[in-house]
Amino acid sequence: MLSKKMDATTTKQIRSILDKLNIKHHRILIDLEKETIELNEEEDYSVDDLLESAGVLTQERVRELRDEINKMREEWN
Hints:
Layout: H1 8-20, E1 27-31, E2 36-40, H2 47-53, H3 59-76
Antiparallel strand pairs: 1-2
Helix pairs in contact: 2-3
């Protein structure tokens, strides 16, 4: 994914539009083809970090859960 810098005027206009839609997130992804807006959480933790931080899962179980999550993500797309 490529990031593009926006000027202050464009940023202000986009924020105004998002405010009208009651979207207050700082990080979003706009898909013009699908006509959707994906809201990203402030804290972006990877799946591996979350699963391993629990400390109660074996490495094998972490791999199984990661594979299952990846499969679900593919189905959503």
